[in-house]
Write a structure and sequence with these properties.
Layout lengths: L2 H12 L3 E6 L2 E7 L5 H15 L5 E7 L6 E6 L7 H14 L4 E5 L7 H4 L8 E3 L2 E3 L9 E3 L14 H12 L8 E5 L6 H10 L3 E6 L3 H16 L4 E7 L3 E2 L6 E2 L6 H9 L3 E5 L3 H8 L13 H14 L1
Parallel strand pairs: 2-3, 4-9, 4-10, 5-8, 5-9, 10-11, 11-14
Antiparallel strand pairs: 1-2, 6-7, 12-13
Length: 314
């Protein structure tokens, strides 16, 4: 087979994505995999190698890709226990259902719960050329979690540089065609948050709080951290806002009411909405069935639509 025939065979399966060069008994093919996810990239390379296979010739392929431009949405809270991880998982799924190509990074070193929330508990990511490959989930949102980097049940006793390094590996992983990364940050304003704003520059931050005064005090600290670092605040979400009795339907407010919306107005940032204190949200999420994946979701979809609108305008 001459060089022209080899080029034709490769072009038939790869089109303009492949460049062929024949030197002696060696066939070199450079494949442009820009915009392809990992399975599509592997399938294309396999097809090219098969098309270029000629008895007596050594086929070598090189896969290249332009670095994708993706936006990071940091989900943060000033304190723990406000349901930030549940909000992060459901926000990521709702954004994906709205048309964005979303990945989820679980950077919560104190309680990495996303593998359970996203129904992939017990999985570990693979790596290619020392680059992590995100784990597929049933909801079309690939995931990398601190919880996947250590043995199940083990405490993650890492110092600042170690957690910063792990965060970098997850953010800089092979996210393929993903255009949006939702990053579930640990509570507080420590090393991981500082690394995120300094090295990875989120497009914006979503702050999660409950209506109670103590949570709002800490939420203001989180807002202050991002504002001082020059990271825009997309808005504030009030979680656990109101409890409807399943028997009589009466709504009560065990954590107060309207505090987060008032805090958002005071800080001059958007109020993205309220998420009720609903046992169905908690049980479904803990079971790896986030409500945002359901066809009847009316809680997270409107919040995700506001976040997507903000991203489109910034």
């Amino acid at each position: 087979m001459d060089e022209q025939a080899i080029r034709a065979a490769v072009t038939a399966v790869a089109g303009t994505r492949a460049t062929v060069r024949v030197e002696g008994q060696r066939i070199g093919v450079v494949i442009d995999a820009s915009g392809l996810d990992v399975p599509a990239r592997d399938a294309l390379e396999a097809s090219v190698r098969m098309a270029a296979a000629v008895p007596g010739y050594d086929v070598r392929t090189v896969v290249t890709a332009e670095r994708a431009t993706r936006r990071i949405v940091a989900v943060a809270s000033g304190k723990g226990g406000v349901g930030k991880s549940t909000v992060s998982a459901n926000l990521a799924i709702a954004l994906a259902r709205g048309g964005r190509r979303v990945g989820l990074v679980d950077a919560d070193i104190y309680g990495p719960s996303q593998p359970r929330l996203m129904a992939v508990e017990g999985t570990r990511p693979e790596a290619r050329d020392k680059v992590l490959l995100p784990v597929a989930t049933p909801y079309g949102v690939p995931l990398l979690s601190m919880g996947q980097l250590v043995e199940p049940g083990r405490a993650l006793a890492w110092r600042g540089p170690m957690t910063a390094g792990a965060l970098g590996q997850m953010v800089d992983a092979d996210w393929g065609v993903t255009d949006t990364l939702v990053v579930d940050l640990p509570p507080g304003t420590g090393d991981v948050q500082l690394t995120m704003v300094q090295k990875h520059r989120p497009a914006g931050a979503v702050i999660v709080s409950t209506p109670q005064d103590l949570a709002l005090i800490d939420a203001r600290r989180a807002i202050d951290l991002f504002e001082k670092a020059g990271v825009p605040i997309i808005g504030l979400i009030e979680n656990m806002a109101g409890y409807a009795c399943p028997h009589c339907g009466e709504v009560s407010d065990p954590f107060g009411s309207g505090g987060a919306e008032a805090a958002a107005q005071e800080a001059g940032i958007a109020f993205l909405g309220r998420i009720p204190l609903d046992i169905a949200i908690r049980t479904a999420s803990d079971a790896g069935q986030p409500p945002a994946a359901g066809a009847d979701d009316r809680v997270f979809a409107p919040i995700a639509a506001q976040v997507a609108g903000w991203l489109a305008g910034h």
